[in-house]
Specification:
Layout lengths: L2 E7 L2 E7 L5 E2 L1 H9 L7 E5 L3 E7 L2 E2 H6 L4 H20 L15 E3 L4 E3 L5 E2 L7 H15 L5 H11 L6 H11 L2 H4 L16 H9 L29 H10 L3 E5 L5 E3 L4 E5 L6 E2 L11 E6 L2 E6 L6 E3 L2 E2 L5 E3 L4 E5 L2 E7 L1
Parallel strand pairs: 12-13
Antiparallel strand pairs: 1-2, 2-5, 3-9, 4-5, 6-7, 7-8, 10-11, 10-20, 12-14, 14-15, 15-18, 16-17, 16-19, 19-20
Helix pairs in contact: 3-6, 4-5
Length: 346
């Protein structure tokens, strides 16, 4: 995978990405970013054939921001911006798996609470974007650094773990119910008759400069544009079809080879490690880390991610890069440190 170097100088953050062997810059996607402004995204600039430079002013890493503690509105404002970015990426013909959804690669402007993401305009087999894993990590960091565990964080974690909630619109609906003001404070995508984000550059420029009349001069997050707030709502009223899909759903099984122990993977975020809080607890093995790896489900597809473990995670004999998602298939072989597992559908 690409190697990154993050430099903070003054009030400017610069990220230098050097592509690895087999990765190529996607010229089409670079052109998209050159032709229009993506509010909330670092603008990529190509330097040679293997290097991409990103810059953004006045931002801090998300983890640093969460360490100071966040209230309920701020937390859901962060989540709402994440949801809007995933929709913006897909509506512009880009690929969600190229959006860097890792807490160390997401930044926040403390003054405005605006979130900035890094999108990799590259051709690569590695999946970087995993919305549910990112939100789960955000909940954990927010809870860890807060003065005390907040009820809204506990409830949102329960929601993420509910197997019925695996669509982006499910998360949006949840936020609108729990904290409706969050979506009213972010810039919504302007839409044309087709419902897609406009390609008119002047429209994007207005997004960046429309805050000039704000009295305080500090708030870049704007009231929502009613023309761009209704997305993916067709399924909201189609309860019959949704229920049928849930009834027919098959859940995979993770089986530990050494003991024959097996657990059905029913959660969207399924944790594996030696701590008792994990969904699959591996006891009597010091080689396994506390939270070693996770299996995540997104839109019916399952992914495996190593969580920075000491002794690594392997998929079909190949060592996984930490904090990157890899697609799981029926009867895949998984190795957690020196423990072997089989992932399969019954």
């Amino acid at each position: 995978m690409a190697k990154y170097r993050i430099v903070s100088k003054g009030n400017i953050v610069t990220i230098k990405s050097k592509l690895s062997f087999g990765e190529q810059i996607n010229e089409r996607e670079i052109n998209i970013f050159e032709q229009q402004i993506f509010r909330g995204c670092f603008r990529p600039r190509q330097e040679g054939k293997k290097t991409i430079i990103y810059t953004a002013p006045d931002v801090v890493p998300l983890i640093s921001y969460l360490k100071k503690g966040v209230d309920e509105e701020t937390f859901f404002l962060l989540v709402a911006q994440t949801i809007e970015m995933t929709k913006k990426i897909e509506m512009n013909g880009l690929y969600l798996h190229n959006l860097m959804l890792q807490t160390e690669m997401v930044f926040v402007c403390e003054r405005t609470r605006e979130v900035f993401f890094v999108y990799q305009p590259i051709n690569s087999r590695i999946t970087s974007g995993n919305v549910y894993a990112f939100l789960a990590d955000t909940v954990q960091y927010a809870g860890r650094y807060g003065k005390e565990p907040e009820q809204f964080l506990k409830e949102f974690q329960v929601f993420l773990n509910d197997t019925k909630n695996y669509k982006i619109e499910d998360i949006e609906r949840y936020i609108r119910e729990k904290c409706p003001q969050a979506f009213r404070k972010i810039v919504k995508a302007e839409t044309g008759k087709s419902g897609y984000i406009t390609n008119d550059r002047s429209s994007y420029e207005r997004h960046y400069h429309s805050d000039s009349n704000d009295e305080g001069g500090t708030t870049l997050l704007m009231e929502e544009d009613e023309s761009g707030t209704t997305l993916l709502t067709q399924q909201e009223d189609d309860e019959g079809d949704t229920t049928l899909l849930q009834q027919e759903e098959r859940y995979p099984i993770l089986e530990r080879i050494s003991t024959g122990e097996s657990v059905t993977v029913r959660k969207n975020i399924f944790n594996i490690g030696k701590e008792k809080e994990n969904d699959f607890t591996i006891i009597n093995n010091k080689a396994v880390s506390r939270r070693h790896a996770v299996i995540e489900r997104i839109n019916g597809t399952y992914y495996l991610m190593d969580k920075g473990s000491t002794n690594h995670t392997y998929l079909n004999g190949e060592m996984l890069d930490a904090e990157n998602s890899y697609v799981l298939s029926d009867h895949d072989s998984i190795q957690i440190a020196d423990e072997e597992f089989t992932f399969y559908f019954d």
